[in-house]
From TrEMBL:
The chain crosses the membrane at residues 21-39, 45-69. InterPro entries: P-loop_NTPase. It comes from Streptococcus suis. Gene3D superfamilies: P-loop containing nucleotide triphosphate hydrolases. It comes from the Bacteria. This is Transporter. Keywords: Membrane, Transmembrane, Transmembrane helix.
């Protein structure tokens, strides 16, 4: 649902921020400790530390992308299911008197799903337009 998705997105953003802060501090502290233990090699350590900080941002970008893909996986699964569904042939019958009557129409996605509408009846005259919309459009 939309609420669950929002919670997952908020948790993933919090995780990304916490991870970002943790690794920034870790790189800084490790560099400081190494420089204090080996002051004669401080130039090399500064270079390695700088490279670690430069590589850190793209690495976090990749991690963020992987988290986003994981969050989108249920939607991707549903799209794959929809692509694999049998297509309904498009056959049309010419309407003679200009009126379409629908009587007690019910619809649901499958037997386990609730009805989207049940026993719906209506008439459409020539030129009328009917839109049925829901959460997904």
């Amino acid at each position: 649902s939309q609420i669950d998705r929002g919670i997952v997105e908020a948790k993933s953003i919090t995780f990304q921020q916490a991870t970002s802060t943790f690794f920034s501090l870790l790189i800084s502290i490790m560099s400081l400790v190494i420089v204090l233990l080996n002051p004669e090699r401080s130039g090399e350590i500064a270079l390695i530390s700088s490279m670690a900080m430069i590589l850190y941002s793209p690495t976090m970008g990749i991690v963020s992308s992987l988290i986003n893909v994981a969050n989108l996986y249920p939607n991707i699964e549903r799209l794959v299911d929809l692509v694999g569904e049998e297509q309904i042939p498009k056959t049309f019958t010419k309407i003679q008197n200009g009126i379409v009557n629908v009587d007690r129409l019910s619809y649901r996605y499958d037997n386990a799903s609730p009805y989207l509408f049940k026993n719906l009846s209506f008439s459409l005259k020539e030129g009328d337009t009917l839109f049925i919309t829901g959460k997904s459009g």
